[in-house]
C-alpha cells in the first residue's frame, strides 16, 4: 500500500476475527505523527533538561499526544559538551521509566550539532561548535550512546569519514545538515553510511544548476531521506512542491516540526540559551532576525501542504506518519500490520471538508468518535 486509504478499504483485506468495523465514510485513517526534529515544548528546551524535569517531560509527552504525535526524537541543538551530557543522561533516565498511556513515546535522541559548519550554523551558538571527530562524539554521548538515534553533522569537517563510520557502527543514523558540503562530499558521506538530510534547503547551499550541493546529491541518492519543514517560512510552498516531485513524494521525504521550547505557549519573547527569541505567528527568530524555528505542531505541516495545494491529503498525511518510520529504517511494507499492533486511540481519522480544510481526530477506545479538531 503506497498511500493512506479509507479505513473501510484497508480493513476489507484483513482477517475478520475480533475486528470492530467503523464506517469512516471516505475519511483517511493513519497512525499518529512521528516528529524526528523537535527542540522543546511548553517552555522547556531539550538541551536544558535536568534530572528534576521528569514532570515537565511528562507534560510535553502528553501535549504532543494531544497534538496527534505518537513518538518523537527530542533534539539537542548545539550547546556545551557538559550540557549535552547532562541532557542526555536526564532524558535517558526518563526513558528508562514506564510511560503512562496517551503520552508520546521517545524514540531516542537527535543530536543536531555540535559538529556543524560555522558558516551554516544558523541559530546554533558559534562558541560551542566542535570538530567532527570520534573523540568529540564519544565524549558527548558518554555511557548513553544507545539512547542516540540520529546525529546531524557537516561531513566536510571530517574528510577521513571516521566519524560517520563510527556512528554507523554504533547503530546511529547519520544526517547531513548545517553544512557547506559539495555534491561530491555529500556523495562520499552517503557511501560511508549517511542516510538522512536535516531540514532540506535550510542551512545548506541552495540548489544551483552548476553546483547541486548537498541537497542535489541527496535528491539523486535512493538511500537518502530528507526532512522538511512546512511552516511557510523555512521553505516557500513552490519549492516544497518542487522538492516533493524531486524526492518522489513521500518515498524519501518526511515532515518535521523543528519546534522550539515555546511550542504550546502564546506568541511573545522567550529565553533561548543565553539569548532571546521572539515568536510571531508561530515563527521564532533571534534578535538579529535569524530564523530559529517554529512553534507550529507537526500535523500543522500536513494541513499546510494541503491548504497550499502542494500535494494530495494522503501524501501529506504519509509525510508525517509512515514516512518518518521509513527514514528510521522501520519496515512498513505492509502498513496493515502497523495498524493492528496499536491501540485504537493511536489511530487518527482525517477529514477534508467541502472547502478543502483538512482536520483530524484520534479514534476512541470505545469507537465513539469525538468532534473533529483542527490544529
From TrEMBL:
Q: Which residues form the active site?
A: 258
Tell me its cofactors.
Answer: a divalent metal cation
Task: Tell me its family.
Answer: Belongs to the metallo-dependent hydrolases superfamily. NagA family.
Keywords tagged on the record: Carbohydrate metabolism, Hydrolase, Metal-binding
One Gene Ontology term from the biological process aspect of the record: N-acetylglucosamine catabolic process
Residues annotated for Zn(2+) binding in this entry: 112, 178, 199
Protein name, per record:
N-acetylglucosamine 6-phosphate deacetylase
Return the EC number.
Answer: 3.5.1.25
The cofactor binding remark recorded in the entry reads: Binds 1 divalent metal cation per subunit.
The UniProt record gives the binding positions of substrate as: 123, 202-203, 210, 234, 291-293
Give the superkingdom in one word: Bacteria
Cite the GO molecular-function annotations of the record. metal ion binding; N-acetylglucosamine-6-phosphate deacetylase activity
Xref: CDD domains: NagA (cd00854)
Q: Which PANTHER family match?
A: N-ACETYLGLUCOSAMINE-6-PHOSPHATE DEACETYLASE
Amino acid at each position: 500500500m503506497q498511500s493512506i486509504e479509507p479505513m473501510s478499504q484497508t480493513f476489507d483485506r484483513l482477517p475478520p476475527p475480533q475486528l470492530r468495523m467503523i464506517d469512516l465514510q471516505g475519511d483517511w485513517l493513519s497512525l499518529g505523527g512521528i516528529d524526528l526534529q523537535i527542540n522543546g515544548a511548553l517552555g522547556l528546551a531539550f538541551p536544558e533538561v535536568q534530572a528534576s524535569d521528569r514532570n515537565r517531560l511528562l507534560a510535553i509527552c502528553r501535549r504532543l499526544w494531544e497534538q496527534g504525535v505518537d513518538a518523537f526524537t527530542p533534539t539537542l541543538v548545539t550547546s556545551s559538551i557538559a550540557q549535552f551530557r547532562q541532557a542526555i543522561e536526564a532524558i535517558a533516565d526518563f526513558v528508562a521509566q514506564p510511560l503512562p498511556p496517551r503520552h508520546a513515546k521517545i524514540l531516542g535522541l537527535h543530536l543536531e550539532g555540535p559538529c556543524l559548519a560555522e558558516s551554516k550554523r544558523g541559530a546554533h551558538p558559534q562558541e560551542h561548535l566542535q570538530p567532527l571527530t570520534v573523540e568529540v562524539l564519544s565524549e558527548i554521548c558518554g555511557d548513553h550512546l544507545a539512547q542516540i538515534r540520529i546525529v546531524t553533522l557537516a561531513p566536510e569537517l571530517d574528510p577521513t569519514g571516521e566519524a560517520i563510520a563510527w556512528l554507523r557502527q554504533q547503530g546511529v543514523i547519520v544526517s547531513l545538515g548545517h553544512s557547506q558540503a559539495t555534491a561530491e562530499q555529500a556523495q562520499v558521506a552517503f557511501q560511508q553510511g549517511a542516510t538522512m538530510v536535516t531540514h532540506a534547503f535550510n542551512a545548506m547551499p541552495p540548489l544551483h544548476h552548476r553546483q547541486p550541493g548537498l541537497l542535489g546529491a541527496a535528491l539523486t541518492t535512493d538511500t537518502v531521506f530528507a526532512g522538511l519543514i512546512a511552516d511557510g517560512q523555512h521553505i516557500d510552498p513552490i519549492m516544497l512542491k518542487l522538492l516533493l516531485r524531486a524526492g518522489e513524494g513521500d518515498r524519501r521525504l518526511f515532515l518535521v516540526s523543528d519546534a522550539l521550547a515555546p511550542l504550546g505557549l502564546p506568541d511573545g519573547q522567550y529565553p533561548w540559551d543565553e539569548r532571546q527569541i521572539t515568536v510571531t505567528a508561530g515563527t521564532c527568530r533571534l534578535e538579529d532576525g535569524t530564523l530559529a524555528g517554529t512553534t507550529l505542531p507537526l500535523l500543522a505541516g500536513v494541513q499546510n501542504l494541503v491548504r497550499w495545494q502542494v500535494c494530495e491529503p494522503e501524501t501529506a498525511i504519509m509525510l508525517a506518519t509512515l514516512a518518518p518510520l521509513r527514514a528510521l529504517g522501520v519496515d512498513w511494507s505492509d502498513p496493515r500490520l502497523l495498524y493492528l499492533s496499536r491501540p485504537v486511540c493511536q489511530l487518527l481519522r482525517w477529514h477534508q471538508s467541502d472547502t478543502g480544510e483538512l482536520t483530524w481526530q484520534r479514534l476512541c477506545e470505545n469507537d465513539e468518535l469525538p468532534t473533529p479538531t483542527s490544529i
